[in-house]
Specification:
Pfam families: ApbA (PF02558), ApbA_C (PF08546)
Order of helices and strands: EHEEEEHEHEHEEEEHEHHHHHH
Strand order of the largest sheet: 5-2-1-6-7-8-11-12
Keywords: NADP, Oxidoreductase, Pantothenate biosynthesis
Catalytic activity: (R)-pantoate + NADP(+) = 2-dehydropantoate + NADPH + H(+)
Shape: globular
Distance between the termini: 49 Å
Protein name: 2-dehydropantoate 2-reductase
Number of strands: 12
Number of helices: 11
CATH topology of the largest domain: Rossmann fold
CATH class of the largest domain: Alpha Beta
Structural class: alpha/beta
Function: Catalyzes the NADPH-dependent reduction of ketopantoate into pantoic acid.
Radius of gyration: 19 Å
């Protein structure tokens, strides 16, 4: 079984480590030391604990390690390129990367600059941290794997099979760009609002928030049309996008979105990776984006307050 390094011990990083460790040599890499005994709470409420192989970036730089078959980068979007640069000397430039970032910021940049294969993964699995030694798998979803230039189908298929075997249902796809933009659309309608109001995903269905969700989706649907992104589930226009958002809200009702986790920890959010590409696209196509701009401004103001 191929070996895996996971760069970024956040919620998705630790979920991957828990899932892959029983099957393959897996190393979780972060900037600071973490307890090797890590706990996972399953969507069914079962508590599991196992010892994970955990290294710091500094340890990686000072020791010699057999390079991995896959390097998964599970940092926040705005940190992905710097994180990769920080360990690039420890791996061959031919090493396949797997990018798990939200939004559509890091993926095209790293695909253009990394000499080896670059796969992109987008997942609807929900997870959040509950301490330095614990992660909650809040909801089962599905992961799609592919590359932006459709050059690495076999590699993506092999990874999808491994993830599925590890308990994270996955499929290799040729349209990962479409999938990433679809995930971007969903994240834009959910993450900023739950982060700003401190609520779980499922609460967006309530009267206090549903109207704004609909208003955001209206703008997003127009942007998707301009970008040539097909509406999900063989649907039509705005209704299809709204149906997808409500479906994800229902499936992840108890999930604490990553952007909400960032706000609670008083750290920068991924607004640039999620809202940024949509606002830029709207400007390029001459489309309205008042709701998206409003969310971005509100998040920027909130982030500024963290430093006071």
């Amino acid at each position: 079984m191929a070996s895996h390094w996971i760069l970024g011990p956040g919620a998705i990083g630790r979920l991957l480590a828990h899932s892959l460790s029983p099957l393959a040599a897996t190393t979780l890499i972060g900037r600071r030391a973490l307890p090797e005994r890590q706990a996972l709470t399953t969507p069914e409420g079962e508590l599991r604990a196992q010892f994970l192989n955990i290294l710091t970036v500094a340890q990686l730089a000072s020791e010699t390690h057999e390079p991995p078959a896959f390097l998964h980068i599970t940092t926040k979007a705005m940190a992905a390129e710097a994180a990769l640069e920080g360990i690039a000397n420890a791996i061959p430039s031919s090493t396949p990367l797997v990018l798990w970032q939200n939004g559509f910021l890091a993926q095209p940049r790293i695909t253009q600059t990394w000499p080896g294969p670059v796969l992109c993964a987008t997942t609807t699995d929900g997870a959040y941290l509950s301490g330095d030694d614990s992660v909650v798998h809040a909801g089962r979803g599905h992961t799609f794997v592919g590359d932006l230039n459709n050059q690495h189908d076999e590699l993506a298929e092999a990874l999808a099979q491994t993830l599925t075997q590890a308990g994270l249902a996955a499929t290799q796809v040729a349209d990962i760009r479409q999938r990433l933009w679809q995930k971007l659309a969903v994240n834009a309608a959910i993450n900023p609002l739950v982060a700003l109001h401190g609520v779980r995903n499922g609460e967006l269905r309530g009267e206090a928030y549903a109207g704004r969700v609909i208003a955001v989706v209206k703008e997003v649907a127009a942007i998707m049309l301009a970008e040539g992104i097909t509406p999900p589930n063989i649907g039509q226009g705005e209704e299809a996008w709204l149906a997808l958002v409500w479906q994800v809200v229902e499936n992840t009702a108890n999930n604490k979105a990553s952007m909400l986790q960032d706000v609670e920890a008083r750290r920068p959010t991924e607004r640039g990776a999620i809202l940024g590409p949509l606002i830029e696209s709207a400007q390029r196509h001459g489309l309205a984006c008042e709701e998206l701009r409003g969310l971005d401004d509100e998040l920027a103001t909130l982030e500024e307050s963290f430093n006071r």
